[in-house]
Amino acid sequence: MPEKHRPTRKISIGSLQIGGDSPLAVQSMAATQTQNLEATARQIEVLEQAGADVIRIAVDSDADVAALQTLREKFPNAVLSVDLQENYKLAPKVAPLVNKVRYNPGHLFHLEKDKSIREKVEFIIDAARAHGCAIRIGVNCGSIDPDYKEKYKDDLVEGMVRCAVDHCQILDELKFENYCVSLKDSDSTKVIDANRRFAKERPDVPLHLGVTEAGLPPEGIIKTRIAFEQLISAGIGDTIRVSLTLPNEEKGQEIDVGREIIKDIEEGRFRSVPENFLDGLNIIACPSCSRVENDKFVELAQEVRKITAYAEKHRLTIAIMGCRVNGPGETDDADLGLWCGPSRVNLKKGTETLGSYSYDDILTQLKKELDLIIASGAG
User: Rounded to two decimals, what is the model's pTM?
Assistant: First the structure.
C-alpha cells in the first residue's frame, strides 16, 4: 500500500524541502565531540556517503561554534542542523552556519531564569529568521519542561503534546512558519500516541519522527519500525531519524535502515513484530552524539546486552545513556539505569542513585543489582 497523503505545509531546510508532497527526508547526527574536528568531519563524510538528507551537530559552547564554522567551511554544501543543547544564547552565532536550528523546550529554563520562555524562544526565532534557518521544536520524553511534567504527571504523553502545541502557537504569533516538530520517546507506543495526538490537532505542522534511544540493532530497528509503520502509513511524518547505538564508522546504517523502512511502507511490505517482543528484558540505549564524553559507551552498551542475556524473559528495562545532559532524566523510568561520564558510570534503580563506578567495575555491579531485582520477584 502506498503511504497516505501528508497534509502538512512545506518548509525549507536550506536546499531541502520537507512536508506536503515532498519525499520523506532521512537524517542522522554526528556522534562525536564537535570540537574533535577530525572525528566530526569523518562523521559527516560517513553520513553524506550514506545519503543523509540532513546532518545534525550539537553545540554547547563558543568553542563548539568555532569548530562548527570550520566544519561548515569544509562541507559548504551539506544540509546542517544544529542542536542548541542547553545554551539557547548561542542561536545568533550558529544560525549563519547551518540550515536548521533545533531547540528543546525542556532545556530553556536552565539559563537566565528571570526571562520568560517566550522571550527565549523569540531570541532563537529572531536569529533563525535573520539567516533563513528552519526551526525544529524538539520535545523529548526525558527532558519535558518541568511545568508540563508537573501539570500532566498522570499523562506525560499529553504533557509532551501540549508543550509542542504551545510552542507552535508562540512561533505562529511571531509569524514564523518555517518550522517542524518532533515528539520522541524510547517507547514505540508512546511515540505513536504522541504523534497521532499532535497531528490531529496540528495537521499543518511537519513532523520529524524518531524513537529516541532505540538501542542496539536488531532490537533498535524493530522498535523504530513499529512506530514508523504505524505513523507513516497513516500520513504522519515528513522526516525521520533512526537512532541506533553503533560504532562511529557504522553510523551510516541509520540512513540505510531509514530508507529501507520507508521503501517497505511505500511498497506495502510490513514486517511482523515477533510475538511478545516487548514482554521480556528491554534494553534502551541512546544512539550516541557529541555529548558522549567517553567512547567506551557504545562498547559498554554491547557488553550490557551480553551479560544480561540470561534475564531475557524477565519484564525489566535497563537503560544505558551516554551523557550527563539527558542521562539522569532518561533513566528515571528504567528498572536499572546507567549514565556515563568521562571516567565513571552512574548506576540508578528507578530514580534512586546507587553509586558511581569505573567502566571496569560497572558491569559486575549492574549484574548484582539485576540479580537482586530478579530474586525479589519483580519482573
Answer: 0.82
